[in-house]
Write a structure and sequence with these properties.
about 35% strand, alpha+beta, 12-stranded antiparallel β-sheet, Porin, 6 helices, about 290 residues, globular
Length: about 290
C-alpha cells in the first residue's frame, strides 16, 4: 500500500527554504524545491509563496508582509531547484522593502517587490462579504467532483494540492458552466494546521491565490481549463494583505474579471474569513490564447 502524503506537511516543506552555502552577492540567497506537476512546469503560486518567505527571512521579526507585486518571466522546471536572491531595498522606521528574484539556470523566472510593515493603528473600513454563500462544509471536495476521471491533471488537482478547495459554483475543470458570467468563488484552507507565524500564513495564502483566479475570465467565455488547444499562463500577480488571517481556517475567495482583450485577461479577487473580515485583495493578468475557430 502506498504511503499517504500529508498535504500540509508538503506545503510547509515547499516554504522551508535553506541558505545557499558559500553564495555571496548583494543579495541574500536561499534555495527551494518544487512540487511535481503533470506538465513538469512550476506552479506560479508556489514561486510566489517561496519568494515571499525568502523576503520575510531578511526582515526583522514583527514586520508583516502587506503588499507584493510580481512578474512571471519564464516557465519554471519542477526538476530543477529554485534559487531565491533577496535584495534589501530599504528598512525604515515602520516599513521594509525587498526585491526578490527567483532563478533557474541563472535566469530569473519571477521578479517581485514586496513590502513589510510594523503593525500600526489607523483608519479602518472594508467592503462587505457577499450574502447567501453556502457554507464550505456543504460543498463537495475537489476529489469528490473529479472522482472517476482518469487523467493525470485530475489526479493532481484531487490528491496532490495542499489546499482543500471547494467551488461555490460548478467548477470549470473539464466542462464549462451553464452561465457565461465573469465571476467565480471558492472556499479554501489547508488540510491541516499551520504554525503560528503570520508571515507564513500570508505566504501560503499567496500560494493558494493563484489556483482559481483566472476562472472568472474563462467562465465569461464558456471555457473549461481543459479546452483543447487553449494556452493559459499567469503574467503578473499583485496582492495586498489587510488584516491578520489563518490559512488553516476557511477563507472565501470571491473573484471577478473586469476585462479581457489582446489575448490577456484581467481578474481580481477579495478574500474574506468566516467572520466576514476582508483579509486580502488580489489582482492578476493572464495570457489566454485560444485556437482560431474554423
Amino acid at each position: 500500500m502506498a504511503d499517504t502524503v500529508d498535504p500540509t506537511a508538503s506545503l510547509l516543506s515547499l516554504l522551508n527554504l535553506s541558505p545557499a552555502d558559500g553564495a555571496q552577492t548583494d543579495e541574500d540567497i536561499f534555495v527551494g524545491r518544487s512540487q511535481q506537476e503533470p506538465r513538469k512546469r512550476v506552479f506560479g503560486g508556489q514561486v510566489l509563496g517561496q519568494s515571499l518567505v525568502a523576503a520575510a527571512l531578511t526582515v526583522e521579526p514583527g514586520r508583516l508582509m502587506h503588499s507584493m507585486h510580481g512578474y512571471f518571466l519564464r516557465p519554471g522546471d519542477t526538476d530543477i531547484p529554485i534559487t531565491f536572491g533577496v535584495q534589501r531595498l530599504r528598512d525604515g522606521r515602520s516599513f521594509s522593502a525587498r526585491r526578490t528574484h527567483a532563478y533557474q539556470n541563472g535566469a530569473p523566472i519571477l521578479s517581485m517587490i514586496s513590502s513589510f510593515q510594523e503593525p500600526g493603528e489607523g483608519l479602518d473600513h472594508q467592503v462587505e462579504m457577499p450574502d447567501g454563500v453556502p457554507e464550505p462544509e456543504s460543498l463537495p471536495t475537489t476529489a469528490e467532483l473529479l472522482q472517476g476521471i482518469d487523467h493525470p491533471v485530475a489526479k493532481a488537482w484531487s490528491h496532490e494540492r495542499p489546499m482543500d478547495i471547494r467551488h461555490v459554483e460548478k467548477p470549470v475543470y473539464f466542462e464549462a458552466g451553464p452561465e457565461k458570467v465573469a465571476r467565480n468563488a471558492v472556499w479554501m484552507k489547508t488540510f491541516g494546521p499551520m504554525p503560528d507565524d503570520q508571515n507564513l500564513h500570508r505566504a501560503a495564502l499567496a500560494y493558494a491565490s493563484d489556483y482559481t483566479l483566472l476562472e472568472s475570465v474563462l467562465r465569461r467565455h464558456g471555457l473549461a481549463w481543459s479546452a483543447r488547444g487553449m494556452s493559459v499562463a499567469s503574467l503578473d500577480h499583485a496582492m495586498w494583505w489587510h488584516r491578520p488571517l489563518r490559512v488553516d481556517d476557511w477563507l472565501l475567495y470571491v473573484q471577478e474579471s473586469p476585462s479581457a482583450s489582446g489575448a490577456r485577461g484581467l481578474a481580481s479577487g477579495r478574500i474574506f474569513n468566516r467572520a466576514g473580515e476582508l483579509v486580502a485583495t488580489v489582482a492578476q493578468e493572464g495570457m489566454i490564447r485560444i485556437p482560431e475557430q474554423p
